[in-house]
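Researcher: We're teaching a course module on how sequence relates to structure. For the next exercise, students receive a sequence and then see the predicted structure as C-alpha cells, so they can try to spot secondary structure elements on their own. Here is the exercise chain.
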Amino acid sequence: MTDKKMRAKLRELDRLYAEHATNQGGDDFEKQNKLRIELLDSFLALKPYIKRRTKLQWYEPTYNYAITGNLEYIEAAREDLAHMIGQDADTDSPEKA
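Model: And here is the predicted structure for the students to work with:
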C-alpha cells in the first residue's frame, strides 16, 4: 500500500474517532454501535502499520478503549494518529539541498 493510501486510511480512522467522540453524549445508540464496528474494522486493518509507527507504549488497549467511547482514550488515539500522519508527511517532503 502506498504512503498516500495509508495516510488516507489513517485520516479516515481519525475522522471516525472524532465522530465517535461527538456522539458520546447522544442517545442514538444505533449510530454509536455502527461507529464502533467501523472503528474496530478499520483499526484491525491498520493494526500492523500502527504497531510499527505508534508512539504509544500500550497502543492496542488505548485504541480499544477509545472504541468503547472513552473520551480520554479517543483523544490519545487521535494524537497518536496525528503523529503518524505527520511523520508520513515529513517523509514525502523533498529534501533541501
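Model: If you want an answer key for the exercise: The two ends are 29 Å apart (CA to CA). The mean pLDDT is 88.
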